[in-house]
Design a protein that fits this description.
With 179 residues, the protein is α/β, with parallel strands linked by helices. It has 6 helices and 6 strands; from the N terminus they run E-E-E-H-H-E-H-E-H-H-H-E. Strands 3-2-1-4-5-6 form a 6-stranded mixed β-sheet, with helices on both faces. The protein starts with a strand and ends with a strand. 34% of the residues are buried.
Length: 179
């Protein structure tokens, strides 16, 4: 478990389709600590919904000079390929990643191993809310919610708290389809 590399990530989306990302944050956990952070705005090449822009603070102007997903992929691919993927509500974030790859006809791998910290938390801490902001309050973790860099870092901190309490993320690994 201590030797594992966990690639914790979070995406923000521009609209209710959830088929493109407008930002991605990644925090890499290795040896029981966060060893790397990565963040980028992403030009989704799709319109923004008002709700998503208000929630995330990201709109057309914000991503004007940002790379598109295909432009960012050569940098993202080695990071995301380097360990077990982890997200808070992993089916959402992995679903957005899968739809981005498919929408741009980018081939990656047919499946990935992933851990969902919501599922993990519900097992480890029954009876409390498992919303990211509530868990951050519970653990005293700083959070600027719905900002991909802050959300991925907070999720990594939560994962570390779970590991420190004796939980083994390997017991929560699931295979997610990416094609």
């Amino acid at each position: 478990m201590k030797d594992r590399r966990y690639v914790v990530f979070d995406v923000e989306t521009p609209n209710r389709l959830n088929s493109r990302m407008s930002a991605i944050g990644v925090s890499v956990v290795e040896g029981g600590q966060i060893v790397r952070d990565f963040y980028s705005l992403v030009d989704p090449e799709q319109p923004f919904d008002w709700f998503n822009s208000v929630l995330t603070g990201i709109n057309e102007e914000t991503v004007f000079d940002a790379p598109s997903f295909p432009e960012l992929w050569p940098e993202l691919k080695p990071i995301l390929s380097s360990g077990i993927l982890v997200a808070h509500n992993a089916s959402f974030d992995l679903g957005v990643l899968r739809k981005c790859l498919a929408g741009y006809e980018i081939e990656w791998k047919p499946t990935v191993k992933g851990v969902c910290t919501v599922v993990m938390g519900r097992s480890l801490l029954p009876g409390i809310s498992h919303k990211l902001n509530d868990l951050c309050d519970y653990y005293g973790i700083c959070l600027n919610h719905h900002r991909a860099d802050s959300d991925s870092r907070a999720c990594a901190e939560i994962l570390l708290r779970y590991i420190e309490s004796g939980a083994d993320p390997d017991n929560y690994i699931r295979t997610y389809r990416m094609d």
